[in-house]
Structure formats: structure tokens, C-alpha cells
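User: For a benchmark we're assembling, each entry needs the component sequences followed by a predicted structure for the full assembly. Here are entry 17's components. Please fill in the structure.
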Amino acid sequence: MKRRFLLVVSLVMVFALAVPLFAQSYDPMSFKSKKPMSQWKIALVPKDATNAWFVRMEVGVKQFAKDTGINAFQKGPAKTDAAMQAQVIEDLIAQGVDAICVVPVDPAALEPVLGLALSRGIVVIDHEGASQQNCLYDIEAFSNQGLGQTIMVELAKMMGEKGVYTTMVGNVTNASHNEWADAGVAYAKAHYPNMTLLAAEPRVEIMDNLDTAYERAKELFKKYPNLKGIFGTSSLSSPGVARAIEELGLKGKAFVTSVGLPNENKVYLKDGTLQSVLLWDPRDAGYAQLAMAVKILKGEKIENGCNLTAPGWTSMQFAPGSTKVLQGKGWITITKDNVDSFGF
Amino acid sequence: MISLRRITKRSEPYVLAAIILLSLLIQVRSGQFFSGNNLVDLARSLIVPALFSVGCMMVIVSGGIDVSFPAIASLAMYVTDKLLLASNYSGNVILAYAISAGLGLLMGALNGFLIGFLRLPTLVVTLGTSSLYTGLMFGAFSASASDVPPSIAKHGKEILFTATNPTMGLTSNMPSQILILIAVLILAFFLLRYTMLGRGIYAIGGDETAAERAGFNVRGIKMFLYCFVGVLAGITGIARISMMSYADPSTMLGMEMTVIAAVVLGGTRVTGGMGTLTGTILGVALMTILSNSLILIGIPTYWTRVFTGAVIIIGTGVTAHQTISTRRRRAQSQKAAA
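Assistant: Structure for entry 17:
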């Protein structure tokens, strides 16, 4: 029994070593599929199958499957967990899918398993994982720079362009969240001389959990009485922090904004605890990821201006200095006036 | 008179000392620990893990382990939430608690049947049912974050009192769910201390065969125990979503690790037979204070995991060390007697 267990362990380790740890470079054109389109199987792996954000993404996935007749589906881990996400991808590789679109929890943790997928000839498309090495392309709804600046512009408006603020990310290992926060901080430094970043806690982690966002916000406002703004990134930061602001009696004195879903923020937008949250539609992001995978399976060359057929994703541009990361345009500012118009 | 030697053998004093030291550290670093609103915030954060820990501790005392309670709580609250939303029910929240507790009872009974009657190992059974229940929730019910029905939302706004920080004017509300915790603690105290059932839980944890020969109904006790954990988990699920006015099916998943760590930290022996409610609550309090005060202490985000990990290792290490040294001492005295 024990010996068999050891055997299994050592076999697993040998296979783990065999997986290319370092990014190999692949020619996207060589991933053209020899199978007819009707036999393609494309999976989209979200960070968390239950999060409202990714439930909305699945709407786009289903729409795409309906529009094109391609077998496309979404399959994600039960909670935001890098190891569980890697497991889902391993299962998909074993099932023999033709393309995997992934929204990584932690790009670094997925390198081995995505490297394995590429080596088996599976198309890998990332979304919100610009630092991913083992993927053919990473597509973004917008430049991280652009969104980070926009969040900061919104926050500065609320704070009257002065006061102390800090940044909040889903996980400290989350690539996009950190890039938005970095861009926002750099923008504030250049444009708002009266705004200062809280030096003792410049970046707070909420473990992608609403309760944690609420608890961390309460701690921050207790410890730092002059803290006036929170630059949120994760869609859970606005509702969590807003609840803390309301309960602490800081409405009108402390502010927060982040990416956010209309329904989760509706109450706080309407009662004035929140002024605005930013959004791109995850439905369109899901749709665009699949469109990108299909382009590669068809053997199309990807160039500046390529059209992923979802609103705001119609003219993708390579990020400066990159041949892998493509960025679209378009985020929406959600306020109390338009919050009811999204239907989700 | 309790001798000093007896006190130092127990783990509660160490945990209490750790809590006091940590509180003083936080007070020195932030000047905020002993403010009314901070204490209310901590009590609020304590409710859910403490409710879980009561059942978890009883299972560990009986010589078992249960990792399925977050899954039971999540599925029970989610089904209840959806049922009440679909039926447009707007009456008393007690119905929500009753439905959720009932569902918890059913799920706990499955654990109890497999463990008590089929005598399967507890860890394997609860790992299995845990993945069964989460699987049902995400698969069959395709669960996703959802609103709560009006009765639960109203319950979430019921507050006992509001604590105001005099210097900063910050306010914190004490949620009414703390009353549930107090009631559960009183119930568990009487159960463990004054009923044959409670003594039986300790007895089967100490030595199952001996307990059976002494006339304890081991199957029945185990069945009761896992049903009790299920009911408690169902209640905890509703308490959790009412406090946040938001039903997120994954928010409780993964809590089993911190709850078990807190129970062990509080002196409950993982080998069974020993453990107290006081120790358990102290363990949960230590973990809650720790995870809600790192910003107050001024530890940068990047170091929080290191800090939390170190405290768990040191804390459980002290408890484990005590178990080993007690056993060694007992072995030595037995040898001397022979």
C-alpha cells in the first residue's frame, strides 16, 4: 500500500518535471485545426464558477455557441483558488479540447499546466493575465493603464482631488488588479498633487471575498482616521467597502470606487454611499475570448485592428512593445442614473 | 484549591495569555483595540467561526473529524434562500432558520449514518459528503451569488446596540445574531456537562470500546453528533448571509481549516477525549483577533500570511507539545508503578 503510494507520488513528480517550466515560444499560425469546425471543443475557464461576474461571462459563452454552432462551454473551479483552477484545466486537457480560454487566478501558478496544453497543440487564450508566458495571446477589454487611470479619475472626482487614499486588490498575486492600481497611483502622482498614497498600507488584499473587503475597510478607517478614499479593483471591493462606510457613519466623508456589477452596488449607488463604479461587460469578454480562439483554430493571422465581434472588442490593438497582449476599448461608468439599465 | 501545576497543564491559560499579549500589542500600535466599536467589530466577526467551532469541537472530542460543515452550511442556506425568494415569503426569519436547520439535519444525518452505522472513517466520509454537497450546490442548483429575501434582509438590519468611538466618531453595530451564538453556547455547555449524551461524547473519544462496554450507545451518540453539527451548520449559514444581506455560496467554503485550527489551538486534543468550550471560544477569539487586526498592528499586506501561519504553527505546536509531554509523564508513572 505504502509502496504503491510512493510509486504514484514519484510518477506524478516525474511528469511534473517533464512539463516545460519555461515558456517555449509557439507560432500561433501552427495551431490551425485540421478538424472540421463542427468537431471543435472550446472551453472557457473562469476564476470562480459562482461569482456573478463569471455567471454573466457564461451568458456570452452560450451566446457564442448559439451564434456559431461551435461546441463552446464554460467550466470553472467552485471557488477562487489557483490550485483548483489548474485542476480544472488538467481535466480539460485530458478531455481533449481544442482550445482553452482562461481568466487566471494567478498566472504564475498556471504556467506549468498551460505549458502542457500548448505542447499538446491546444490553443491557449488568456484574459486578464497579461503576465502569462504560456499562452498564445492575452486579450484585455482595455489597457490596464487606461482602466487604472479611469478609476483614479473617478476617485479623485469624489475626493475633491485631495486627501489620503489607498489601493485594494483581490489578491496580491492578481496581475491585472495590481497593474490597474499601479497605473492609478502613477496617474495620481502626476495629476493630483494634493492626493497622497497611504504609505503604511499602500496595497490591501481582500482575498476576493466581500466580507474580507468589509472587514479590511473597517480596520483601515479605524487605524488611519485621515484616510479619505479607497481605490478598489475587484468587483467585490465597492459593495464591501460601501457597507463599512455606511456602518461606520462615514457616508460623504470616505469614498470608494472599483470595477463593479450593477446589481451588487445598486443599493449603495441609490443611497449615495457610492457615486459610481466602472464596468466592462463580462458577457462581451467571454464572447471575445471564444472569437479569438476560433480565429486561431481557423489559422487567421492576428494583427492590429482585428475584430473579435463583441461590442468594444471590434478593433483590438497590441499593447505597446508586446506581440501577445491585445487590448480593446470601452468601459462604462455606472451611476445611480443608469444602474437599472443593464439587466444584471 | 486548583494547583498551579494543574493550571499550567491546560492550554486555556496559554491561549488567554496570547490573546492578552496580542490585544496589548494592538492597543500600543493603534490605540484602537479597547475602543467600543473595535470590540463590537471583533464580536461580529467572531459569530460565524464560533458557531461552527462548537460542533467541530464536539466531533473532535468524540475522536472524529468533520470537514463538511461549511459545505452543509452553504447548501442549506442557499436552498433556503432560493426557496424563500421563489415563494415571495416575507414573514418571520424563524422560518428561514427552521428550513436551513432542517436541511442541515438531513445532510448531517447522512454523515452520521455512514460514520455511526457503517463505521466508515470520519475524515473520508466528511471529505466525500463535503464534495457531494458543494457539487450539488454548484451542479444541480448551479448556485451563484444571490440577493436575500426580505425576511433575511430585515433580520440582517436588526442590531442590539451601536458602539461609538468617542475620539473618531466611528460607529459599529452589534448584530442580533450574537444572541444565537450565546444560546448555542449555553445549550452546548449543558449538553456536554450535564447529560449522559454529553459525557458519552467524551467517553467514546477517550476509548470507544471501553465506552461501548460501559453501556454507551456509541452508534446513537455518533448519529446525534453529526445531526447536531448539521443543524448548527444550517443555522450558521442563515446567520452569515443575513449579516451581509448577500448570499454568496462560496463565502464559507474553506473555513473548515481555520475553524479546526482554532479548535485545536483552544486545547482540544485531535486524538479525542479532551476539549472544552472555553478553550474553543478562546481559540476562535485568538484567530479572529489576529485576522482582523493585522492592519491595526501595521503589518503590510505582503506579510500577513507569514504572520498568521507563524501564529498557527506556534499555537498548535504548544498544544501538541503538551499532549506529548502528558503522555510521556503518564507512561513514566506507569512504568514506575510496574
